[in-house]
Amino acid sequence: MVTTQTESPPAPNSYTLVLPPGWIRVSLGASVDAAVKDIADRMFARLPRDAYPQRRREMENLLRDMVRQARATNGIDLYLPVEEMHGVSVPASFVVGGAALPDQLDDLDTLGLLGTLAAEGRLVDVDGESGVRTERIQPAAPDQGAGSPASRRVDYVFPIPGDTRRWLAVAFSTPGAGDPTDQVADVLVELFDAMMSTFEWRNR
Q1: Is 35 found in the same domain as 110?
Q2: How far apart are CA 93 and CA 23, in angstroms?
Q3: Residue 174 β-bridge partners
Q4: N or C: which end of the chain has fewer CB within 10 A?
């Protein structure tokens, strides 16, 4: 009897997400200044070039901090809204990043790790594979003043198919309308979960 071995498909090296109108994806591989300029240009695209210069500078400073923090946590892409919804800015963003795990991690270890993480959240399906979703309230940082309010955080963590040593983390954050437990925060969390339901792996 002759048996043949089938090769496992290669691990995906890209992904897609369906975004709602007004949201953009910004690669964190570019320089901080380039990423900030890209975001600010899109946010102020509908305004005269010299309108609200002070507001733009303040926004660029906030964006610069956001981009730096995202890159410092192994961020790959930053997603955020650049258009208002019903005349109101949308206070939310999320970061997609990666993490490398020990070389000796096998499929059984992966299941064990998923189970441990699920104890603080719940198991979810991400493009046909198991992942974990956690949600929490992040208190305001008293040492950073009003610039770091309390926020609702939602994280999805899941292994990359075909390579159990590499995982992807998607971290969402919103302060709501000043209270991370308010209705605005609830709606934005639902919107983020809806976006994550469209996540698909790709090979470029």
Answers
A1: no
A2: 9
A3: 152
A4: N
DSSP state of 85: B
Domain containing residue 168 = 91-204
Q: What is the CATH number of the domain that holds 100?
A: 3.40.1000
Per the confidence metrics, is the pTM higher than 0.85? Answer: no
Three-state SS sequence of 100-135: ECCCCCCHHHHHHHHHHHHCCCEEEEECCEEEEEEE
Residue where a domain terminates, one of 14, 49, 82: 82
42 and 82 Cβ atoms separated by less than 8 Å: yes
User: CA distances (Å), 59 to each of 22, 71, 87, 92, 162, in order?
Assistant: 17, 18, 17, 14, 40
Mean pLDDT of 27-54: 79
Contact assessment for residue 110 and residue 181, using Cβ atoms and an 8 Å cutoff: no
Q: What is the pLDDT of residues 113-134, one digit of tens each?
A: 677 777 788 889 999 988 889 9
